[in-house]
Specification:
This protein is of the alpha/beta class and 282 residues long. The protein has two domains: 5-206 and 262-278, 3-Layer(aba) Sandwich (Rossmann fold); 209-260. It contains ten helices and seven strands. The chain has helices at 5-10, 12-17, 22-45, 60-73, 86-95, 131-139, 180-189, 209-212, 234-257, 260-266; strands at 50-54, 78-83, 100-103, 116-122, 142-150, 192-200, 271-278. The protein has a seven-stranded mixed sheet, sandwiched between helices.
Length: 282
């Protein structure tokens, strides 16, 4: 069965809004990316008058980015959010009436010929059918871009395999999976010049994880008694569960202390954060 993004995202908002850390993560990502690359954008452009967040959901990230831009240049940019799912747009307009929420793809938006000074694409490229064509089309409508994209393939030394669960079966509907090498090639082929970027193990560190990822934090090991058949030795199951819990916790701590180069080569994963410039606008 062919994965249909529009159909998938019709039910996506209810899943997203139930995640307790989602609003904080969306705002944090915008603040983080601006802190890394904002001054360089303003140095090149002088000012940002027209900004769009593509796949911006409820607008948490766009509102945070617009705030950062205002703080550094003294006025807010015209801010737009492009989103496929109608529920995101309806809720977003209620939350942020001063943001222009546009339901549909930016590729099909013909109401204005405006060129965006800046577009943001956070956790987006992994969702998009034909990502090279998508990026190329965006490069014709924007001067600069800030991108944040997960590298979900396995360790490079072991074949960099994509996950088994994809599309409808992936928890977030991802259909594109990258290694660092083929992701950088995608940006280049899509019409973007990499100005500055870096690969990181995670955008969330150990100190702020309890705020930004409360739903991901492991709880104390326990046994679901409802799923146990009669005669099951609860002590054995609990001990196995306990071992898994501490093994995963030790593995997580080990990864957090190891350089990304080795984590990427052995286990894979990670994120790429970058500032790119469209080749269509010099």
């Amino acid at each position: 069965m062919v994965f249909d993004p529009l159909k998938y995202y019709e039910s996506y908002p209810s899943k997203i809004i139930l995640r307790p850390g989602y609003p904080a993560r969306a705002q944090y990502k915008s603040t983080l990316m601006w802190s890394l690359y904002g001054k360089r954008i303003l140095k090149s452009l002088g000012k940002i008058d027209n900004y769009a967040d593509i796949g911006g959901c409820f607008g948490f990230g766009a509102n945070s980015m617009a705030f950062q831009i205002n703080k550094h240049q003294g006025h807010y940019p015209r801010t737009s959010v492009f989103e496929l799912a109608s529920n995101f747009v309806i809720i977003g307009r209620q939350l942020y009436p001063y943001i222009n929420f546009i339901q549909g793809s930016i590729l099909e938006y013909k109401e204005t010929e405006d060129i965006f000074d800046l577009v943001t694409m956070f956790d987006l490229i992994e969702h998009v059918p034909e990502p090279e064509m998508f990026l190329s089309s965006i490069s014709e409508r924007a001067k600069f871009g800030l991108l944040m994209t997960p590298m979900e393939t396995g360790g490079d030394w072991f074949g960099a395999k994509p996950p088994d669960k994809q599309g409808d079966h992936h928890p977030d509907g991802h259909i594109n999976f990258y290694t660092p090498k083929n992701y950088l090639k995608l940006l280049d082929d899509g019409g973007w010049e990499l100005i500055e970027g870096k690969f990181v193990k995670s955008v969330i560190n150990r100190d702020n994880r309890f705020v930004l990822e409360p739903e991901e934090l492991g709880s104390n090991p326990s046994v679901n008694k409802e799923k146990l058949s009669e005669g099951t030795d609860h002590r054995i199951l609990y001990e196995v569960d306990l071992l898994k819990y501490f093994f995963n916790k030790c593995l997580l701590n080990l990864c957090s202390l190891s350089p990304y180069y080795f984590v990427r080569k052995i286990l894979g994963g990670g994120y790429h954060l970058c500032l790119v410039k469209s080749r269509a606008y010099k």
